[in-house]
Amino acid sequence: MKQAIQQVQTCTTMQDVRRCVDALDDVLVPLLVQRSAYMTQAARIKQDMSQVRDEDRIEAIVDRVRALTKEEGGEPAVLEAIYRSLMEVCISFEHREFARLRADSLEGPSAPSGGGIVRAVTNVGAIA
After folding, report:
1. pLDDT tens-digit map of 1-20
2. pTM (predicted TM-score)
3. CATH classification number, 11-127, choose in 2.30.110.10, 3.90.960.10, 2.20.28.20, 1.20.59.10
4. Between vectors from CA 82 to CA 85 and to CA 35, what angle results, nearest 5°?
5. Strand, coil or helix: what is 43?
6. For the stretch 12-39, what's the b/e string if a residue is b when 16 or more beta carbons lie within 10 angstroms of its beta carbon?
């Protein structure tokens, strides 16, 4: 199998570059949607908010991404920066999901009033 870097087409115009980037985005976006959906599952499974940020896991992912990037002929520092940003956004999303899931479980016929306020405050962070 070819390295990913060897599959990059030679472009002669910015239109060519943008067409190729758009084609890659068509593949990346659905994969990133799937990846981020796992954060909701992680938020459901984790028992405590302190478990959402796992520094050991972050560093393991970075190490893995750097190694894969080298194998594919890319720049490890670039992919590390992208992944660190991605993980920070996912951690923020997972924090919101953790709070939302617990607020939703408090709501219902026997839930004390005010559960909706917790969800509304949590959702404000999703807008930012």
Report:
1. 789 999 999 999 999 999 99
2. 0.78
3. 1.20.59.10
4. 75
5. helix
6. eeeeeeeeeeeeeeeeeeeeeeeeeeeb
